[in-house]
Amino acid sequence: MVISMKNKYLILITLISLKLGLILYYFLTDNILFYGRNINAILWFLLGAIVIVFTWNEQQRVKGRKERIQTVFIVVVIGLILYFLSGLILGYAHSPYSLSFSGITRNLIYIFLIDMIKIYYRTALINLGKKQFINYAVITIMFMALDINTYLFFQQSTEAVSWFTNFFLIFIPILVRNVLITYLIVTSGFLTAAMYLGLFSLTSILLPIFPKYDWFFTALKEMLIAVGVFVAVNNLHIQKTMRLSRNKFRKKKPKYVLITMIFVLLLASFVAGFFKYFPLGIMSNSMYPNILRGDVVVVRKLDIEEMQNLQKGDIISYVLDGTYVIHRIVEVYEDGSTVYFQTQGDRNNTPDIEFVYFRQIKGKIVARVPLIGYPSVWLSETFAKSTPNVEY
């Protein structure tokens, strides 16, 4: 079946409309029971069926398809092997997925099969649309929106973690994954992208143990493997499509990837709080006019001696009932060897009821960057189904 250009656009508009409807449905649904696995699966199966009916004979021509698939397989498998070997040092934890026959079957349907439908559906959108960067970007953003929303529905943290931190440590891996998948589809076709995502899905579903990483290093693992896949496939793509000489090929190698990767690692480490300084996003105007909603403050971690030197007027970050608070010290008290503080928001009329002790203090505010925290504010208020983790 050959699809005319007019029908292509009609199909493309229909598919995008369905996709946008799916995104809006996810965004506007407050009751997670109606957002459950079954409805999610039914929607994707319906979209998959529509795509298959209209695009089954529309094949994407790719030079060196087998070689590209093998390259992705080798890079991802090596990355996963190194990841699992690291558990010999860090220890292992049990898989959160059911390993019974029925459990594995359900996860193969709800996770692996739906992942493959998403890849095929994205491939159809890319192949039916114009070969332009703006189209690729819009499609990538649409799938990112679904991934971010799905993650936040099922990974609500109960720890005192900054939404600003969550935003970057959730957003960056999802961005890297979706950009890579779109790139693989555009340059190497459906099967190459399916190989990449499928290996991650099957590993999660079938293996009984995982290295005992925290969520930061788990995300970092995926980003490093994604960078490796991109470098390998991009080099292969240049060789196959441009037929460059060896010298010219060396010049075309993406040397900027290493710089970008180092920058991303440093940024993620800063956001995760691995350095002496770390950022926090501001969710309210309790410190108005000195610190505003949507700002980001830089917090400097303090040792015991530095905490003892805190003075009236200092602005500190501390944790109260699992929530980060940023308020100003208005009184310093000593009870024998114990030092504690009374705090107050600059906009508040009365001091805070609870006193603050050393064990609660996360650091002292040393800098403010206006407005750049608004993405985390939006993310918190849009997706949070319970009290936000951060409230100032």
Strand order of the largest sheet: 3-4-9-5-6-7-8
Instruction: Note the total helix count.
Output: 13
How far do the termini sit from each other? 60 Å
Q: What's the average pLDDT? A: 78
Largest sheet: 7 strands, antiparallel
Count of all domains: 2
State the shape: elongated
Derived from helix and strand composition plus strand pairing, the structural class reads alpha+beta
Please provide the count of β strands.
9
List the helices and strands in order.
HHHHEHHHHEHHHEEHEEEEEH
Which regions are unreliable across 5 or more consecutive residues at pLDDT < 50? 30-35, 156-161, 385-392
Description:
The chain is an alpha+beta fold and 392 residues long. It has two domains: 5-272, no CATH class; 277-383, Umud Fragment, subunit A (Ribbon), CATH 2.10.109.10. Helices cover 58% and strands 14% of the residues. The protein has helices at residues 5-28, 37-55, 65-85, 87-90, 101-128, 133-154, 163-188, 190-206, 215-242, 246-252, 256-272, 304-308, 374-383; strands at residues 92-94, 209-211, 277-281, 296-300, 315-320, 323-335, 338-344, 356-357, 361-369. A seven-stranded antiparallel β-sheet has the order 3-4-9-5-6-7-8. A two-stranded antiparallel ribbon has the order 1-2. The chain is elongated and about 80 Å long. It starts with a helix and ends in a 9-residue tail after the last helix. Mean pLDDT is 78; it is low at 30-35, 156-161 and 385-392.
